[in-house]
From TrEMBL:
One Gene Ontology term from the biological process aspect of the record: L-tryptophan catabolic process to kynurenine
GO molecular function: kynureninase activity; pyridoxal phosphate binding
Function according to Swiss-Prot or TrEMBL: Catalyzes the cleavage of L-kynurenine (L-Kyn) and L-3-hydroxykynurenine (L-3OHKyn) into anthranilic acid (AA) and 3-hydroxyanthranilic acid (3-OHAA), respectively.
Family indicated by similarity: Belongs to the kynureninase family.
Alphabetical UniProt keywords: Hydrolase, Plasmid, Pyridine nucleotide biosynthesis, Pyridoxal phosphate
Reported cofactor(s): pyridoxal 5'-phosphate
Classification via SUPFAM superfamilies: PLP-dependent transferases
Organism: Azospirillum lipoferum (strain 4B)
Transmembrane segments: none
Residues annotated with N6-(pyridoxal phosphate)lysine modification: K210
Binding, pyridoxal 5'-phosphate: L85, S86, F113, P114, T115, D116, T155, D184, H187, Y209, W239, T265
Catalysis performed (reactions): L-kynurenine + H2O = anthranilate + L-alanine + H(+); 3-hydroxy-L-kynurenine + H2O = 3-hydroxyanthranilate + L-alanine + H(+)
Descriptive protein name: Kynureninase
Record gene name: kynU
One Pfam family it belongs to: KYNU_C
Amino acid sequence: MTDFQATRARFRIPDGVIYLDGNSLGPLPVAAEERVARTLTAEWGGQLIRGWNSAGWMVQPRVVGDRIARLIGAPAGSVVVGDTLSIKVYQALAAALAMRPDRSVILSDSGNFPTDLYMAEGLIETLGRGHVLKAVAPEEVEAAIGEDVAVLMLTEVDYRTGRLHDMAALTAKAHAAGVVTVWDLAHSAGALPVDLAGSGADFAVGCTYKYLNGGPGAPAFIYVAPRHARSARPALSGWMGHEAPFAFDPSYRPGEGVERMRVGTPPVIALAALDAALDVWDGVDMADVRRTSIALCDLFIELVEAQCPALELASPRDGTRRGSQVSFRHPHGYAIMQALIDRGVIGDFRAPDILRFGFTPLYIGEAEVRGAVAVLKQVLDGGLWDRPDYHRKAAVT
């Protein structure tokens, strides 16, 4: 059994704060402070440019990738880290489309995170080959899979509601129709068990600053199924994805396997923080995380519906059909969330009307759930949210 009391001690959370926003930005792992300091002083400061070899900076993307692979059901050597999630979406989608040159439809759902859809639109325009993006309601995805579809591109857990797609079933249906799959694990990795290899997924991408606690702007990862690793076409042929970067050849030759999906120079300091953050997972069983997460979310829903009837549940009620978050609707959701944050309960808001709360057993327990609902009830019962400053939208919501 995972010792969640021990994992809680490995995070720095301010006193008096109930942090229910790890689904947007994970808190600071204590180990990351020392690790980043060492990278700055002993490695960069002491070794200077020699650190690329002596401190292992050059191999960080695949070393850290292997650590993430364990958490998403991927074999060693199939995940590489670097760049941003938008870039990784672009790479995966471009490679997937190249595998089906005779088809034109990219199938997604209307609940997908906007950047995934934006990247698809931009790629379609760049290619200029008549591709179309078709976004249907989440519950209509399975029926929309057909032989005109080139790529099924989905985010496993809906960022607004937490709705969970059945990766194995949809991947099987896609493959039966000759469709290549791209899965976005931004709200899955570190939140619930993922089995990329077992489900047969072709490509997957994800960020590391949410449930993996890599820090703001932490680099993203990309997975390429081993069966595709030597043939996947890297649309962004950066020098780090070259077979021999320091040969400085005038023409591009793709690197071996998933290494070809590297693009730019590794963000060494960010990767050091992420690597330290992943230490927390060494003693954690994802089945324990999932079971506890569902219990915490169920308790939160029960208490909110009993004590805060003005809020409407936006997430699936069945815990097996949602990720590690719970969302409620209210016409003044933004102001309510600001009032909560002002009182030490930190969640976030997603337009147009969703209050979003993330539950991470690594540092959240039943006491935090009950405490958060008590504050929420005070805010609603007392109309404490209805202040002009709480209605004023900040740049980040």
